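Hey all, sorry for the wall of text incoming. These are the two entities for the joint prediction.
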Amino acid sequence: MSLTVDIEKKLASFTLRVSFSAGDGVLALLGPSGSGKSMILRCIAGIEKPDRGQIILNGRTVFDSEKKVNLSPQERRTGYLFQNYALFPNMTVRENIEASIRKDHPGSSRERHQIATDMARRMELTEVLDRKVTELSGGQMQRTALARILVNDADIMMLDEPFSALDEHLRFTMEKELSQVISAFGKTVLLVSHNRDEVYRLADHVAVLSRGRLEDQGTVEEVFARPATVTSARLTGIKNIAPAAVDPDGFLTVPGWGIRVPPAAWQLPGRGSRLPDSQNGQNSQERQHCQNSQERQHRQNNLDSRNSPHNQHIQPSQNIQPSPEDQESSSPLAAGIRMNDIRPAALAKGPGSVITLAVDQVKNSLFSYTVELHNPQVPDPLPLYWQVSRDVWQPDGSASLDLFIPDSAVVPLRER
Amino acid sequence: MDLYPLYNSVRIALISAVIIFFTGIWAAYYVSRLPRSLKGIIDVILTIPLVLPPTVIGYLLLRILGPHRMVGSFFLEYFDLRLTMTWWSTVFATTVVSFPLMYRTCRGAFESFDENLASAAQTLGRSSTWIFWRLRLPLCRQGIIAGLVLSFARALGEYGATSMISGYTPGETATISTTVYQLWRTENDDLAVKWVLINLIISFIVLLALNLQEKEKHH
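and here's what came out:
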C-alpha cells in the first residue's frame, strides 16, 4: 500500500504546494492550524480538487491534472475520519455502519446485518448499536466513525485531528484504542495533527507543514531529535529558539545565550529531508511496518512513565547519516535547545559547555520546575528556559546557576 | 351558509402547496449550491414575489396568461382553454405569491446542512441520490415542513392577485378572502364575521401545528 501526492492548490491566504509519499504505517502531517493539513486530506479524498498535480493511491492514479484524471470520492476508497466524525445524525449506530458497506460487497441484507454486528463487537459498540449517534459519548462516536471506515474496506485511513473533539480525560484512552486500530489496519495511515505528543506516539514518519509548504520530513525520531527549521523546531516542542550564526572558524554561535558549538558537534548529526521510501519491496515494507509498530508501542510505554509532555529524551536513530543535500543547504540562522536537554553542571557528560546563568523566575509544575534564565555576560541576553525534574534539582534561592549545555543539544535551524 | 369558498380555498391552497413542495425544494437545492455571484441574482428573482404588491403580481400574470396575451392566446387557440377567470386560475396566483416562502425556508435549511456529512458519505461510496434522499431531506425536514406550512397558509389567504386573475364568481371562483371582501362591500356584516372567524381558526390551527412540530424535535 502506498500513496504519492504532488499537488498545488491556491488557497485564500497562500498556495498549498506539497509533494510527499507514504508507505505502510503512519505518516503524520504536523502543522499549526490553518497550514493546509486538512486541505491535503480533502484533496486526496476527492472532496476538493487541486489546481495542478498528481495523486497516486496504491498504483491507481486517482488525480492527474495533465491526464485529466479526477476520480470521484466514491471511486477513491479513502477512509476519512472527519474532525467532528461526520456521523449521520438521523441514523442509529447500526444504520451508520451498514450504510458504509460498499455496494459492490457481495452479500444479502442479512450478511450486511452480520457484518455490522461483528464490527460493533470488535469496536465495543454492541450496547449502543441501536441508539441514535447523537446520544453517544465522544469515544463511542469516534469508534463508530472508525467502524464505518473499517467495514468500508478503504485503502487508506486519513485521520483529521482525531482527538480534537474529545474531552481531555478521554484522549489518553482513545489514543491507545486508535493505536490498536491503526496497527490492525496495516495499510497507509495519514494523521493530521497540531499536537506533537500525539504525533510522536502514533506516527512512524512525520512531515512538518507551514503555510502550505512541507518544511521538514523524516522519521519521527529524526525530526524530533534534529528538526531542520524554526517552524519544525517549534512544532516538535523546542521552546528555546534564538538567532544564531556561523563564525569564520565554523563555530555555531548564539549571541543571545553566549554559546559556541564547534563545527564537528553541530554539523555531524545533520540529516537530509527524506521521506519513507515507497518504492521498497513489499517484504521490506512489511518488516518496516512491524518494526514501526514495535517502536510505536515502545513510545506508548514510555509515555506512561514520563512526567511531562516536554520531557522527551530522544535518541537519534541509527539510520541517520549525513546526506549530500546538507552540505548544499543554507547555513543555519537560528539554534534551538530543548528545555530538558540542559543539565546541572554537576551532571555534565560528554562535550559541551558549562555557563553561569542568572535565575529570573522559577515556575512550579506538578513534577518539574521550569526555570527562566539569562546569561549576564552577554550584551543582549535572550531568555533560556530549563525544565528539570524535581528529583534532579530543587530551587535553593540562589540568584545564579552553573548549567551544562551539551553540544549535541544545540540544534541548528535553517530557513527551509 | 354556502361553504363553497372554504372548499375552494382549501383545494387551491393544497394544489399550490404540492406544486411548491417540489419546485421550492428543487430551486432551494440548486441555488444553495450555486457560486456566490450567480446565487445573488437568482435569489433576488425567486424572492421578489414576496415583496411585490399582490396586485403587481396579478397584473404581470394577466399580461402573460390573459386571453389576448402570449401564453393565454396560445392555450385559447390550440386547446380552447381559458387560463383566467376559472377556479384553478387562482392556483397561478397563490403559487407565485407563496413560492418564495417555501424556497427561502428550504434554502436556509439546506445551507445550514453540514457538508462534511455529504463528503463523508461520498468517501464511503454513497451516491448523490442516496445523500439527497437519506441525508439532506431527512436532516432538513424541519425547514421543509415549516416552509410548506407557511406557504400553504399564505396561499389560503391570498387576495390581491387572486381577485385580478379569477375575479369573484359565487360558487365558482369565490375564495374565503374574495368572499369576505364581497360581503363587506354589500354590507352583509353577519356573514362576513363568520368567514373572518373561519379564516382566523384555520390560520391559528396551521401555525399552531407548525410550532408543535418544531418543539417535537427537541425531545
